[in-house]
TrEMBL record:
This is Purine nucleoside phosphoramidase. SUPFAM superfamilies: HIT-like. The keyword Thylakoid does not apply. CDD domains: PKCI_related. A motif (Histidine triad motif) lies at residues 99-103. PROSITE patterns: HIT_1, HIT_2. Residues 6-115 form the HIT domain. GO terms for molecular function: hydrolase activity. Keywords: Hydrolase. Its EC number is 3.9.1.-.
Amino acid sequence: MAEETIFSKIIRGEIPANIVFQDDTVTAFRDISPQAPTHILIIPNKLIPTVNDVTAEDEQVLGHLFVVAAKIAQQEGIAEDGYRLVMNCNKHGGQEVFHIHMHLLGGKPLGPLLSQ
Ligand code: 5GP
């Protein structure tokens, strides 16, 4: 059984977060330490620790993350200029919270994908 993270508490409203979207399958909230003018985390309400744990059963919810990302990008006014969607996995990917999440970053030119 996977261990819950702080993100499960955010989904349930047990700790505060700036939630920009929530439905039965997905929750989206502003990152506490934004790396761009818009930095929103879009997460499945179901706990999936890493991308390595994704199964065929998750296809619908993961597809929904993209639908929600596109909707939020429109709301934030960054859709036309563009943005970046990032999902980190494990140590080499720089994953810190083990509840998969899509980073939606935008609001300025983001530069090259990797710093090195
Ligand atoms: P990762 O490195 O796992 O891909 O990204 C985790 C992200 O979660 C980081 O960008 C970090 O700032 C954000 N984060 C960690 N704890 C919290 C929290 O309690 N609230 C919010 N809103 N974001 C958090």
